[in-house]
Each structure stands twice: as structure tokens, then as C-alpha cells.
Amino acid sequence: MLSTLRHHTRAPGALLRLLTTQVDKYAPLRRNKRAGRNFIDHMRCTVVGGRGGSGCVSFFRDTRVADGPPDGGDGGRGGSVWFVADANETSLSCVRQLLRAQPGTNGRGKSMHGTGGADLVVRVPRGTVVREVREVPRPAEDAAPADGFLGGLARQLQGARSSELFVHYPRWEDRNNTADVRLPADYAAALAEPPAELCADLAEHGQRALVARGGLGGAGNPHFFSGALRRPHFALHGLPGTTRTLELELKTIAHAGLVGMPNAGKSTFLRAVSNAHPRVAPYAFTTLNPYIGTVTYADMWQLTIADIPGIVPGAHRNVGLGHAFLRHIERSRVLVFIVDVSRPQPWADLDALRDELERHQPGLSRRPSVVIANKADREEARANFERWQQMTDTVLVPVSAKLRKNILKATHTIRRLVESAAA
Ligand SMILES: Nc1nc2c(ncn2[C@@H]2O[C@H](COP(=O)(O)OP(=O)(O)OP(=O)(O)O)[C@@H](O)[C@H]2O)c(=O)[nH]1
Ligand SMILES: [Mg+2]
User: One Pfam match, by short name (predicted)?
Assistant: First the structure.
């Protein structure tokens, strides 16, 4: 450390950089704080793999050999872009809109190969679904011949001529005959094949997806040495990395999802049963983004519950906050309807909620579910509850989330349902 400091006192700018790098280890903390304020669960981004380095054209030389054999090094491979699911991330706000991996460096003389570009590893929340967005080709482009080497090349290099693939020795552009040159097999394959369409679901912590592959490095001139061609005065350029436009959608993964009208007491219920502390207030749309709580049972079995903003009738027409937040309960095995039983016709609320779920995703309302009749401590609740119970065979669990009454019955009913849904 002392020697590093002594070195840096001679270069104050570098010392400043050293100090800021050390301070920057708190960047993840800052990012998480920002994520809380600026929740994003749907975004587009562009990912670009690093370009491969170019091969080198060089010939061995020393005091006794004036014109030796070719000794140009190969270019390094470009870095790739990876997405890794991380359970500690909660929002896509930490993902930048343009993600570029490092390019590879060029090869050099004396058979020195270029170094590969570093991969860019981007942490995304668990439950991120990645889809590629492709432009629909216009009919004229569709009709153009697009197969074989030149077709693939045109796609990759946007119409570059094959001679543009080559690095030429100074003033050898016209003397090099590159038309019949056999390209290395992996290089030719990369040119001919368009990258496959990408679709990934990062559901488990640590799951990785390669979203943009780095370009191959170009071969140095020794690759083209043969009996017929003793002095190849050309090498290959590196290939560009894959470029993709991606659509990221965060679909939270929890065992159970809370669904209810605004103000029904979803957040109060989550606070009562789990370790989460979402905001509670006596007005609609207090909760503006999803919260996940973990319920730990007496036998240490754990259950995750997702609280999402309230759904109102007409949410599918974007009334209220719309129904985009329902994506966070799409993957829940069990739905927990929270209904304010002190309202005049709680059963109508439940029907409206089921209708909205069905409009968001057909079949969603038929998922195994439990109905929590919340605010059972209120005066109007008793009569409503008794009437409702006579009208339906659905199991209703009366609960007062605020006073924490009958919570154990609710959590055990949810657990039983989750376990039977998993079986
Ligand atoms: N009396 C009574 N009041 C309750 C009960 N549960 C919740 N409340 C009250 O109802 C109001 C709304 O509660 P929230 O938990 O914020 O409701 P929410 O469903 O999360 O509402 P949004 O986030 O806006 O969708 C608060 O004032 C709570 O104190 C209950 O069991 N009994
Ligand atoms: Mg809430």
C-alpha cells in the first residue's frame, strides 16, 4: 500500500482516482436505495457484445533473417454481455439502457495474440423475463437473397464487401488476392449464421443468460501460410459482437399473491403476517409498487407473499393504476383475495376482482385461492359476513389485519393451499 501511495504522490490525478475507486464500493448500496424510490418492472435496453480484435500482418525479422516467415498474432475475442439473476435486486432500475462489453485487442508481431475483452455481467432481479425485440423486415428486404456466405456477411457487416474483412499489409490492397481465401471454420460459421432469437427466464438466483456474444478475433497472417502462398500479406479483421434490443419484464416470484381493491387492507395484512413493512394509510393507492414479505412458520417453513397495488373495476381499461401490476402475481401458485367485508356488498368486490384477473390473463382467476374477509372487527362486518357465507360455498376466512385477529388461521389456510398446489 505504501509503495502504491508513494507512486501516486507523483501523479495526483491517479491518487484521486484510487481514492474514488475505494469510495465507490458503496455504489451497490446507493443503487438499491435509488431502486426503492424508482421502481421499474418493464424496460427496453440494447446489449452489444465487444468487437473482436484484428489479426496482425507481420513477418519474422532479426539480425540474420531479413524476411522470415509470417508471425502476426490473432486478435482477441470481444467480451460478451451476461445477465445474472440476483435475489438481492428488486427492480430493473439498476439496469442501464445501453450495455456494451469490452472489445478484444488487436494481435501484434512476434506471434503476440490480442487479449480478450472483459465480459459485462449485469445483475437483474430474480424473475426477470428477457425477450428480444426484432424489427419486422420490409417486403423488399425479405425478397433479397440472404443465404450463404455473402448473404450472412451482408447481414453481419451491413453490406460490407468480402475484401473489407481483410487487414492488408501497407500498399498491398491491390496485390492481395483474397477472393479464394479459405476462412477459418468458426469465423465463416459466425458470418453465415444470424444469431438465434433470444428468450430467457431468469427465475432462480444465480441463473445466467448470455444475451450478447462477443465477436470473434481475426486470424493473423500465419493462418494463411501454405505451399502456394509463402508470404501472406493479409490477416482478418475481428467480427462485431451481437447487438440486440431486449425487452425486460420483471415478474416477481412469490408463493402467494395478494389481490384486492384499494384500501382493502392488503398491506396491513402483509405487515401482520410477515417481516415486510409496506406503507399503510386510509386512502386508495397507498402502495405503488410490489412488496414481498416472508412468513416464517413455527417449523421454520417459509412462505413468500407479494403485495401489489389495488385493482379497481375497469383496471384493464387503465382505470386506477391499470392492471400491469398483475404480472407480479402471474407466477404465484396461490392467490389471496383480500376483501373489505365491512363494505355494503363484499361479494360484488370479489366478482369484480375475478373478472379483472380473467381479463388480464385467461385462467388466472381459476388459480387456487383463499378469500380473506378483512376488517371483520368493524360493526357492519358481522351481518355482511353471515349473509355472504350463506350465499357461497367458497371458504371465507374472517380476519382483522389491523388488530391481528385470526391471523394464524389465515396463514395456515394459505400454507395448506400452497402445499397442495405444489403437490
Ligand atoms: N378497522 C380495520 N381497519 C383496517 C383493517 N385492515 C386495514 N385497515 C385500515 O384500512 C386502511 C387501508 O389499509 P392498507 O393496508 O393501506 O390498504 P391496501 O389494501 O394496502 O391499500 P392500497 O395500498 O391503497 O391498495 C388503513 O387505514 C388501515 O388501518 C382491519 O382489519 N380493520
Ligand atoms: Mg397497500
Answer: MMR_HSR1
As its CATH architecture, domain 30-250 has Distorted Sandwich (2.70)
Ligand closest to Cα of 285 equals 1
- So what's the pLDDT on residue 332? 92
Residue nearest to atom 9 of ligand 1 (CA): 265
- Which among 178, 253, 192, 243 is positioned nearest to 215, based on CA atoms? 243
The number of residues in the chain equals 423
- Give, to the nearest 10 degrees, the angle between helix 381-391 and helix 346-360: 60
What is the DSSP track for 311-329? --TTGGGT-TT-SGGGGGT
CATH of 256-422 among 3.90.550.10, 3.40.50.12710, 2.160.20.10, 3.40.50.300: 3.40.50.300
Residue 268's closest CA among 118, 99, 111, 401?
Answer: 401
CA–chain centroid gap for 341, Å, is 40
- Ligand 1 midpoint to CA 268 (Å): 6
On whether the CB atoms of residues 128 and 83 are closer than 8 A, the answer is yes
246 grid coordinates: 431486449
Any atom of ligand 1 within 6 Å of the Cβ of 288: no
The Å distance, Cα 85 to ligand 2 centre, comes to 27
Beta bridge partners of 42: 249
The answer to whether residue 169 scores a pLDDT higher than 70 is yes
Residue 281 carries which DSSP code?
-
The pLDDT tens digits of the residues spanning 174-210 come to 888 888 888 899 998 888 887 888 999 999 999 999 9
User: Is 320 a pocket residue for ligand 1 (Cβ < 6 Å)?
Assistant: no
What distance in Å separates the CA atoms of residue 265 and residue 339, rounded to the nearest whole number? 8
**Grid coordinates belonging to 304:** 413468500
**Amino acid sitting at position 268:** T
DSSP 3-state of 99: strand
Show the cell assigned to 4: 502504491
Chain-centroid distance, C-alpha 308: 21
- Dihedral angle of Cα 199, 203, 206, 209, to the nearest 10 degrees: 0
Separation between Cα atoms, residue 345 and residue 340, nearest integer Å: 9
CA 285 to ligand 1 centroid distance, Å: 11
CB 246 within 8 A of CB 266: no
End-to-end CA distance of the chain: 58
- What is the biggest distance separating any 2 CA atoms in the chain, rounded to whole angstroms? 106
Q: In angstroms, what is the span from residue 282 Cα to ligand 1's centroid?
A: 6
What are the residue ranges spanned by the domains of the chain? 30-250, 256-422
